[in-house]
Design goal:
By secondary structure, the protein is mostly helical. It has eleven helices and no strands. Helix 7 runs antiparallel to helix 8. It is a single-pass membrane protein.
Length: 163
Amino acid sequence: LQKLIHLLQATDDPLIQEQALITLSNSAAFSVNQDIIRNLDGLSVIGGMLSDCVPKVKEKALNALNNLSMNIKNQEEIQVYMTQVCRNVESAPLNSDLQLAGLRLLTNMSVTSDYHHKMINSIPCFLRLLSEGTERTQIQVLKVLVNLSANPAMTRHLLRAQV
């Protein structure tokens, strides 16, 4: 895991980055690896890949963070990227794998109300995706919206959103 994280930092080759991110994502399926990746500063390295200009690299980084977000301590670190994740969802091509990867991460991050406030500005986008997206996109958006609606503090923001 340490070598994969170092490889991500050392290379600019998108194909190598994608493969390293896929391997880290698969490794994160095991809870012990989630802690190891966090302790090796892997979350910030992976989070840094969200600003990459190659959509496939961003998508693989989102998938890795999604798997890593099953851990409360990891969520505390991942939450700093939520605004960027929301921007990626908004700017990604409609129904793209990149957009869906971002929505899946937001779904996990919205299971508890701790980070709902970071998604307030994206509610109009979520409602637009609900209207314009394919069934896969709609289902993922609904999961985020259901999580947000479980928080009474979000009611006003959800009802006032301009669509």
